[in-house]
Amino acid sequence: MPGEVKDECGVAAVYLPRPLKEYPFGGAAYYLCKMLVQMQNRGQVSAGITTFNPQRQQLIDTYKKRGMVSEVFATRIEGKARAILQRYAGNKGIGHVRYTTSGGDDEGSAQPFERHHGRKWKWFSFGFNGNIANFSELKKDLEDRQYHLVRNLDTEMIMHFLEKEQLGDKKKPMDKIFKNISNIFDGAYNMSYINAEGTVAAMRDPLGIRPMSYLISDDFVGAASETVALNKFAENGVKTMEPGEMLLVENDSVEVKRYAKSKKKAHCMFEWVYFANAASMIDERSVYQTRWRLGEELARQEYLKVNSDDWVVVPVPDTAKPAADAYAHTIGLPSMEGLIRNRYVGRTFIEGGDRMEKIREKFNLNKSVIKDKKVILVDDSIVRGNTSKALVEFLRKYGKVKELHMRVTCPPIRSPCFYGIDMSTIGELIANRHSSKEQLNRVGFLDLEQDAVDSIGKNIGVDSLRYMTLEGLVKSIGLDGGKKDLCLACLTGEYPTQWGETLRVKALERFERGLETTRTYE
Ligand code: SF4
Predict the structure, then answer these.
(1) Best residue among 209, 413, 445, 520 to mutate for probing ligand 1, ranked by most atoms within 8 Å of CB
(2) Is the pTM of this model over 0.85?
(3) 503-to-25, 26, 76, 89, 415 alpha-carbon distances in Å
(4) Could you tell me the distance, in angstroms and rounded to a whole number, from the CA of residue 500 to the centre of ligand 1?
(5) Is 9 tagged catalytic?
(6) How confident is the model at residue 335 (pLDDT cuts 50, 70, 90)?
């Protein structure tokens, strides 16, 4: 559901093997900007790059700002964009788009995070995608050693641990550095990294919670959170970075190597359901095709008799469109755009605080499709339920629909995410507000009882509500290892890491004692 959950950062890295003059202006800066535009879906709060250029006094230099990529790089103003990219021209670089799951929205919290040092291999910059679940423990460890976190950010903490790995006179190999931090960190932590010697690295954490891919060709080497950011640089050759692997560019040699064992995989199911660009491949599975299969699966689970002309299927744009089309196709109904998303709103401060006003700003009603119809609204997920409720009210009040039914491609979300997705308390989740205490404490691969689902549907204001089953979700993603290769923690309460489980217990205690605030990371 647009507006309910925010995306959670994207990272990129580039190495251009040929002389800089053979590439468009800015070289790596130019390519990074293009890649970040493709990953804008992963974060709209800020964007930034760090590039390396041995001809520059400032060997690595970072440019970052609040705003969309097009605003940060002024891509619509040719002279300005050219000046920015030329100022940061280089053959190597890393990039980042950010949404805040922890810490502030200010420019200083934007990434990449650069840490200056007089020695070249200790002067580095990095971008991060994920969330460190044992942040509170590691923060305490730093504070005990007289560190002070200015921004209280996990990124800042990672910076100190990277720095600690490079103490002393002896340079440590990059794979050793990543291996050591992977023994300390619990959670999701994909990274892109660069230092003032010109070493570039991109790594995927050993569980592979967040996606990462790479491309190695004769004139372009890159890594990115999503394949869409790399596809335009080569017809073929974009590959999945396996959990525990890294792409390393050092002294102009390029290799993909394992830095840590991956004892198990825990790919975030939400990447396929909602976050990732529909044109991306994640772990060799197409996001679009997965969403299509989810729609087919919803149709198979349908109990309504929908064989008259007054039924229509309407997707909540944009993420639910493939599923709505597949659902409609399977069931024999038209899938029509009853809601048209305004693509030009972007981030705005003029939309007003009222949720209904936000909905009216984001969507236009297409009454020609929905008036006097029995509408089946297909959405990707319901998290807190506030946006769904406002959307349903909008459709009923202004769309004059006859009936309104809702079908959701993600099973009910019942547990917080401690791995970088913005849903961090038990009480904020609508599925929990309509569950008994016994249901709330239940952990495991179980679907929510129908009475709880009906109660949520009533609260949202629809005539009927159905969620995807857990089995249906796992089948639609279709990984070889099935559910054992997925993180499904926000659906089942079973966390793939020790600190995920620790934070779940803490969150439940806080919820039961009425002490929940908006964050349970600490
Ligand atoms: S808890 Fe949910 S949203 Fe978070 S990583 Fe796991 S599957 Fe993804």
Answers:
(1) 209
(2) yes
(3) 47, 44, 44, 43, 10
(4) 10
(5) yes
(6) very high
